[in-house]
Inverse folding.
């Protein structure tokens, strides 16, 4: 046992055989230490590999869970079909409320605070049956069409009468969802002064409704773009209104936000009251439409065209 | 020192740059887009409907600009230099970023499919980039190798 002990003396005190024995002993010890270190290193590597495999499995589970969540969201979303409002016949109260706004209300509102006005254009006269003609192109799903219709119906009601107007709301899936409005689909308009054609190309859910005649399609393509209205980005957008070959407009004249949370009856009621924001915008725009119509009818009927509200709007109408 | 597999490092960097380019385009479109009160063309693939919707802003801040800022930060943290960092703040910050981005992406996909019924292809490109970065980041962290412990013992001092 003593010969295996590690020598403690200095090399000078050792004889030659003792020195060789000590060297062999040191070599063996070094070898054992190297083996121990290698084994420890191997164990560390195996542990690290196990930990890495474990981490990868954990990450794989997380990624798989995210993929499943995304797949469910997308799959259910693609099958999801949120239906919009059904179009029904407009109630008599709503129609009479919109088409029989007191003259005093129109006069008090005047030009209101409308900033976006129809553009004056130079085009071939637009007529039907010898009368100056207005063409409206919109769609029931469109919130901006929903907003603009209230003014158009109010203005046209001063020159004639509608039958078969519908009431509906814009799509719940776009900006200003469920904006209450009227619909021209299936309606007819009679007037001693002008002719009106209203196209609703799609219903609230995007299903096709009215198809434009070839002439009106050509009119829409040509004049619903610069230099007549809008920009190159908005060419073909709706609502589009062509009036007599002298004015055209694209888009709403005010925000559909005005009608947020309102029922059709509440909108019609607000249009009777010149102090409401709805009247200040909707009735004022009706005055502008009326002023344009009065230009085409040579000031007929006089009670409408000479009213202070229409005159105030006419004074602010842009001219070419 | 810890090392992330180089293919994952470069994959994350390239994806982040691609996402940044897409985000730049969307921000430009948002800035130059029309504010008219008009309905654009219809259909399920309809970027204008998505990028002008009420979901295109968060607390008054355009989502397009938020996305742009997000990808600028992502390009930095997905760069090879950032991956070489041992700082826990960088590593956990990167994981937090892609996780938060993925959650917001799921919200935007939900808005497109469930509220707007329209899909913006360019937005989808950004969403895919965020998802891929989430996957690559987690894989990179899981496969990260500690060079100090895996190196041969003879190389230790």
């Amino acid at each position: 046992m003593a010969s295996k002990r590690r020598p403690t003396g200095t090399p000078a005190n050792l004889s030659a055989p003792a020195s060789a024995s000590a060297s062999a002993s040191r070599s063996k010890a070094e070898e054992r230490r190297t083996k121990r270190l290698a084994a420890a290193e191997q164990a560390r590597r195996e542990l690290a590999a196990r930990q890495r495999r474990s981490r990868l499995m954990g990450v794989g589970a997380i990624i798989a869970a995210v993929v499943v969540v995304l797949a469910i969201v997308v799959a259910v979303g693609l099958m999801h079909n949120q239906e919009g409002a059904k179009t029904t016949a407009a109630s008599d109260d709503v129609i009479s409320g919109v088409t029989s706004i007191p003259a005093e209300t129109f006069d008090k509102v005047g030009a209101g605070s409308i900033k976006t006005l129809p553009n004056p254009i130079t085009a071939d006269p637009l007529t039907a049956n010898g009368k100056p003609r207005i063409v409206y192109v919109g769609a029931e799903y469109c919130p901006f069409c929903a907003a603009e219709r209230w003014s158009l119906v109010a203005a046209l009601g001063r020159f004639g009468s509608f039958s078969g107007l519908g009431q509906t709301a814009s799509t719940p899936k776009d900006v200003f969802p469920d904006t209450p409005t009227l619909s021209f689909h299936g309606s007819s308009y009679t007037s001693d002064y002008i002719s009106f054609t209203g196209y609703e190309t799609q219903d609230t859910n995007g299903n096709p409704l009215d198809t434009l005649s070839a002439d009106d399609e050509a009119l829409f393509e040509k004049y619903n773009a610069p230099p007549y209205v809008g920009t190159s980005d908005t060419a073909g957008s709706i609502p589009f209104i062509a009036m007599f070959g002298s004015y055209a407009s694209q888009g709403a004249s005010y925000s559909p936000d005005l009608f947020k949370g309102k029922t059709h009856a509440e909108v019609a009621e607000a249009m009777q009251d010149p102090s409401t924001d709805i009247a200040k915008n909707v009735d004022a725009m009706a005055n502008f439409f009326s002023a344009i119509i009065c230009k085409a009818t040579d000031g007929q009927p006089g009670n409408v065209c000479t009213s202070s509200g229409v005159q105030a709007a006419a004074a602010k109408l842009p001219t070419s | 020192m810890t090392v992330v597999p180089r293919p994952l490092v470069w994959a994350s960097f390239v994806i982040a740059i691609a996402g940044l380019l897409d985000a730049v385009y969307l921000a430009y479109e948002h800035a130059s887009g029309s504010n008219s009160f008009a309905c654009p063309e219809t259909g399920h693939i309809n970027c204008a409907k998505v990028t002008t919707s009420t979901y295109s802003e968060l607390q008054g801040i355009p989502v397009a600009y938020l996305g742009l800022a997000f990808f600028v930060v992502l390009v930095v943290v997905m760069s090879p230099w950032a991956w070489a960092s041992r700082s826990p703040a960088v590593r956990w910050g990167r994981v937090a970023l892609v996780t938060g981005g993925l959650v917001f992406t799921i919200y935007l996909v939900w808005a497109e499919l469930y509220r707007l019924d329209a899909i913006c292809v360019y937005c989808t490109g950004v969403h895919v980039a965020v998802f891929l970065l989430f996957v690559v980041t987690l894989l990179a962290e899981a496969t990260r190798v500690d060079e100090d412990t895996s190196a041969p013992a003879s190389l230790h001092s």
